[in-house]
Protein backbone atom coordinates (compact mmCIF):
# COMPACT_ATOMS: atom_id res chain seq x y z
CA UNK A 1 0.00 0.00 0.00
CA UNK A 2 1.42 3.39 -0.99
CA UNK A 3 1.98 5.81 1.91
CA UNK A 4 1.14 9.50 1.87
CA UNK A 5 4.73 10.66 1.20
CA UNK A 6 5.08 8.21 -1.69
CA UNK A 7 1.72 9.37 -3.07
CA UNK A 8 2.81 13.01 -2.92
CA UNK A 9 6.10 12.14 -4.65
CA UNK A 10 4.17 10.24 -7.31
CA UNK A 11 2.01 13.29 -8.04
CA UNK A 12 5.02 15.61 -8.14
CA UNK A 13 7.29 13.39 -10.20
CA UNK A 14 4.54 12.86 -12.75
CA UNK A 15 3.59 16.56 -12.78
CA UNK A 16 -0.07 15.96 -11.97
CA UNK A 17 -2.23 18.84 -10.78
CA UNK A 18 -4.84 18.31 -8.09
CA UNK A 19 -6.65 21.63 -8.61
CA UNK A 20 -7.85 23.72 -11.56
CA UNK A 21 -7.06 26.80 -9.49
CA UNK A 22 -3.78 27.73 -7.84
CA UNK A 23 -4.04 26.28 -4.31
CA UNK A 24 -3.93 29.44 -2.17
CA UNK A 25 -4.80 29.62 1.51
CA UNK A 26 -7.51 32.05 2.65
CA UNK A 27 -4.92 34.06 4.60
CA UNK A 28 -2.50 34.29 1.64
CA UNK A 29 -2.43 38.10 1.81
CA UNK A 30 -2.80 38.60 5.55
CA UNK A 31 0.76 39.96 5.75
CA UNK A 32 2.52 42.52 3.57
CA UNK A 33 5.04 41.80 0.84
CA UNK A 34 7.78 43.22 3.08
CA UNK A 35 6.84 40.83 5.90
CA UNK A 36 6.84 37.92 3.45
CA UNK A 37 10.31 38.88 2.24
CA UNK A 38 11.66 38.91 5.80
CA UNK A 39 10.16 35.50 6.59
CA UNK A 40 11.35 33.91 3.32
CA UNK A 41 14.81 35.45 3.78
CA UNK A 42 15.22 33.57 7.09
CA UNK A 43 13.96 30.33 5.51
CA UNK A 44 16.38 30.59 2.57
CA UNK A 45 19.21 31.39 4.96
CA UNK A 46 18.39 28.25 6.95
CA UNK A 47 18.32 26.09 3.81
CA UNK A 48 21.71 27.34 2.66
CA UNK A 49 23.28 26.92 6.11
CA UNK A 50 21.85 23.39 6.33
CA UNK A 51 23.43 22.61 2.96
CA UNK A 52 26.77 23.74 4.36
CA UNK A 53 27.13 27.10 2.60
CA UNK A 54 29.19 29.86 4.20
CA UNK A 55 26.93 32.91 4.29
CA UNK A 56 29.75 35.14 5.52
CA UNK A 57 31.31 34.91 2.05
CA UNK A 58 30.83 38.14 0.10
CA UNK A 59 29.24 36.25 -2.81
CA UNK A 60 26.64 34.60 -0.55
CA UNK A 61 25.86 37.32 2.00
CA UNK A 62 22.99 38.83 0.03
CA UNK A 63 21.61 35.60 -1.43
CA UNK A 64 18.78 35.01 1.11
CA UNK A 65 17.48 38.55 0.65
CA UNK A 66 17.84 38.41 -3.15
CA UNK A 67 15.94 35.13 -3.32
CA UNK A 68 13.18 36.37 -1.01
CA UNK A 69 12.66 39.55 -3.04
CA UNK A 70 12.71 37.54 -6.28
CA UNK A 71 10.01 35.17 -4.97
CA UNK A 72 7.66 37.91 -3.78
CA UNK A 73 8.31 40.72 -6.27
CA UNK A 74 9.13 38.79 -9.44
CA UNK A 75 8.66 35.09 -10.17
CA UNK A 76 5.61 34.63 -7.89
CA UNK A 77 4.17 38.15 -8.21
CA UNK A 78 1.23 36.75 -10.21
CA UNK A 79 -0.22 35.22 -7.03
CA UNK A 80 -1.17 38.71 -5.87
CA UNK A 81 -4.49 39.84 -7.41
CA UNK A 82 -3.41 43.49 -7.11
CA UNK A 83 -0.80 42.76 -9.81
CA UNK A 84 -3.44 41.61 -12.28
CA UNK A 85 -3.23 43.65 -15.51
CA UNK A 86 -6.24 45.70 -16.50
CA UNK A 87 -7.52 44.01 -19.65
CA UNK A 88 -8.94 47.08 -21.39
CA UNK A 89 -11.03 46.30 -24.46
CA UNK A 90 -12.34 48.51 -27.25
CA UNK A 91 -15.15 48.49 -29.79
CA UNK A 92 -14.23 46.66 -32.97
CA UNK A 93 -15.00 49.76 -35.05
CA UNK A 94 -13.12 48.53 -38.11
CA UNK A 95 -15.25 45.36 -38.12
CA UNK A 96 -12.30 42.95 -38.28
CA UNK A 97 -13.97 39.55 -38.10
CA UNK A 98 -11.16 37.10 -38.74
CA UNK A 99 -8.87 35.34 -36.30
CA UNK A 100 -6.29 37.43 -34.47
CA UNK A 101 -3.20 35.50 -33.40
CA UNK A 102 -0.43 36.65 -31.06
CA UNK A 103 2.25 33.97 -31.30
CA UNK A 104 5.62 33.31 -29.70
CA UNK A 105 4.83 35.13 -26.46
CA UNK A 106 7.83 34.49 -24.21
CA UNK A 107 6.80 32.52 -21.14
CA UNK A 108 8.67 32.05 -17.87
CA UNK A 109 6.91 30.16 -15.12
CA UNK A 110 7.78 27.86 -12.21
CA UNK A 111 6.80 24.22 -11.74
CA UNK A 112 4.84 23.93 -8.51
CA UNK A 113 6.21 20.44 -7.83
CA UNK A 114 9.95 21.20 -7.71
CA UNK A 115 10.05 25.03 -7.96
CA UNK A 116 12.16 24.81 -11.10
CA UNK A 117 11.67 26.98 -14.21
CA UNK A 118 9.23 26.38 -17.06
CA UNK A 119 10.48 28.19 -20.18
CA UNK A 120 8.66 28.39 -23.48
CA UNK A 121 6.25 30.17 -25.79
CA UNK A 122 2.53 30.83 -25.65
CA UNK A 123 0.42 31.28 -28.78
CA UNK A 124 -2.93 33.00 -28.21
CA UNK A 125 -5.82 33.74 -30.57
CA UNK A 126 -9.36 35.07 -30.51
CA UNK A 127 -12.19 35.96 -32.87
CA UNK A 128 -13.90 39.24 -32.01
CA UNK A 129 -17.64 39.36 -31.43
CA UNK A 130 -17.59 43.15 -31.12
CA UNK A 131 -14.71 43.83 -28.74
CA UNK A 132 -10.94 43.83 -29.26
CA UNK A 133 -8.05 43.89 -26.80
CA UNK A 134 -4.66 45.59 -27.05
CA UNK A 135 -1.93 43.24 -28.24
CA UNK A 136 0.34 43.98 -25.28
CA UNK A 137 -2.48 43.05 -22.90
CA UNK A 138 -2.41 39.51 -24.25
CA UNK A 139 1.29 39.31 -23.36
CA UNK A 140 0.62 40.76 -19.92
CA UNK A 141 -2.14 38.22 -19.21
CA UNK A 142 0.25 35.40 -20.11
CA UNK A 143 2.91 36.94 -17.88
CA UNK A 144 0.54 37.44 -14.93
CA UNK A 145 -0.69 33.85 -14.81
CA UNK A 146 2.83 32.53 -15.46
CA UNK A 147 4.29 34.29 -12.41
CA UNK A 148 3.13 31.77 -9.85
CA UNK A 149 3.84 28.13 -8.99
CA UNK A 150 2.09 26.43 -11.90
CA UNK A 151 1.27 23.35 -13.91
CA UNK A 152 1.15 23.96 -17.64
CA UNK A 153 -2.36 22.62 -18.18
CA UNK A 154 -3.81 25.01 -15.59
CA UNK A 155 -1.84 27.94 -16.98
CA UNK A 156 -3.19 27.31 -20.48
CA UNK A 157 -6.76 27.22 -19.20
CA UNK A 158 -6.35 30.36 -17.09
CA UNK A 159 -5.09 32.40 -20.04
CA UNK A 160 -8.08 31.36 -22.16
CA UNK A 161 -10.60 31.96 -19.37
CA UNK A 162 -9.22 35.43 -18.63
CA UNK A 163 -9.41 36.48 -22.29
CA UNK A 164 -12.90 35.01 -22.66
CA UNK A 165 -14.06 37.07 -19.69
CA UNK A 166 -12.35 40.25 -20.92
CA UNK A 167 -13.61 39.95 -24.50
CA UNK A 168 -17.06 38.57 -23.74
CA UNK A 169 -16.64 35.65 -26.15
CA UNK A 170 -15.93 31.94 -25.97
CA UNK A 171 -13.88 32.15 -29.18
CA UNK A 172 -10.40 32.08 -27.62
CA UNK A 173 -7.55 29.59 -27.95
CA UNK A 174 -4.12 29.09 -26.42
CA UNK A 175 -1.28 26.68 -27.12
CA UNK A 176 1.83 26.54 -24.92
CA UNK A 177 5.05 24.77 -25.89
CA UNK A 178 7.52 24.76 -22.99
CA UNK A 179 10.50 23.06 -21.45
CA UNK A 180 10.29 22.00 -17.80
CA UNK A 181 13.62 22.05 -16.02
CA UNK A 182 12.26 19.53 -13.52
CA UNK A 183 12.30 17.12 -16.49
CA UNK A 184 15.27 18.55 -18.39
CA UNK A 185 17.74 19.05 -15.53
CA UNK A 186 16.76 16.39 -12.95
CA UNK A 187 14.87 13.11 -12.78
CA UNK A 188 14.90 11.70 -16.30
CA UNK A 189 17.22 14.57 -17.38
CA UNK A 190 15.86 14.68 -20.93
CA UNK A 191 17.18 17.97 -22.29
CA UNK A 192 15.36 17.70 -25.64
CA UNK A 193 11.75 17.14 -24.62
CA UNK A 194 9.14 19.88 -24.33
CA UNK A 195 5.49 19.85 -23.28
CA UNK A 196 2.63 21.12 -25.46
CA UNK A 197 -0.77 21.98 -23.97
CA UNK A 198 -3.82 23.54 -25.60
CA UNK A 199 -7.20 24.97 -24.73
CA UNK A 200 -9.80 25.72 -27.42
CA UNK A 201 -13.02 27.60 -26.80
CA UNK A 202 -16.08 28.37 -28.92
CA UNK A 203 -15.39 28.44 -32.67
CA UNK A 204 -11.87 27.09 -32.08
CA UNK A 205 -13.40 23.70 -31.30
CA UNK A 206 -14.38 23.54 -34.98
CA UNK A 207 -11.85 21.37 -36.83
CA UNK A 208 -11.29 23.87 -39.65
CA UNK A 209 -10.82 26.87 -37.32
CA UNK A 210 -8.52 24.89 -35.06
CA UNK A 211 -6.44 23.77 -38.04
CA UNK A 212 -6.14 27.37 -39.28
CA UNK A 213 -4.83 28.48 -35.87
CA UNK A 214 -2.34 25.61 -35.67
CA UNK A 215 -1.17 26.37 -39.22
CA UNK A 216 -0.48 29.97 -38.17
CA UNK A 217 1.72 29.00 -35.21
CA UNK A 218 3.28 25.86 -36.79
CA UNK A 219 4.75 24.94 -33.38
CA UNK A 220 8.28 25.52 -34.58
CA UNK A 221 9.28 26.95 -31.23
CA UNK A 222 12.97 27.55 -30.58
CA UNK A 223 14.26 27.86 -27.03
Give a written overview of the molecule.
With 223 residues, this protein is α+β, with helices and mostly antiparallel strands. It has 7 helices and 7 strands. The termini are far apart.
Poorly predicted residue ranges: none
Terminal CA distance: 41 Å
* Radius of gyration over C-alpha positions, nearest whole angstrom: 20 Å
For this entry, what is the oligomeric state of its chains?
Answer: single chain
The number of helical segments is 7
The structure class reads: alpha+beta
Number of strands: 7
Shape: globular
**H/E topology pattern:** HHHEEEEHEHEHEH
Range of strand content:
15-25%
* Sheet with the most strands: spatial strand order: 5-2-3-6-7
Assign a percent range to the helix content. 25-40%
The description of the largest β-sheet is: 5 strands, mixed
Mean pLDDT: 91
Question: Tags for this entry?
Answer:
38% helix; alpha+beta; 223 residues
How would you summarize the topology of this molecule?
Blueprint (H helix, E strand, L loop, with lengths): L3 H10 L19 H18 L12 H13 L13 E3 L7 E13 L5 E11 L3 E3 L1 H12 L2 E2 L1 H16 L4 E9 H4 L10 E6 L6 H11 L6
Helix pairs in contact: 2-3, 4-5
Q: Concise description?
A:
The chain is α+β, with helices and mostly antiparallel strands. 38% of the residues lie in helices and 21% in strands.
Amino acid sequence: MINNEEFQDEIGNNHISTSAKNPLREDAFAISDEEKIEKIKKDVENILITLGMDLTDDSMKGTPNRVAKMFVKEIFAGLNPTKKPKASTFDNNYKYGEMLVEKNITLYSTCEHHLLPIIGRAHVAYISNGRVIGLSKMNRIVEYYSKRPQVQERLTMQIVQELQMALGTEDVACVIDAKHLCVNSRGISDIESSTVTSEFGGKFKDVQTKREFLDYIKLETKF
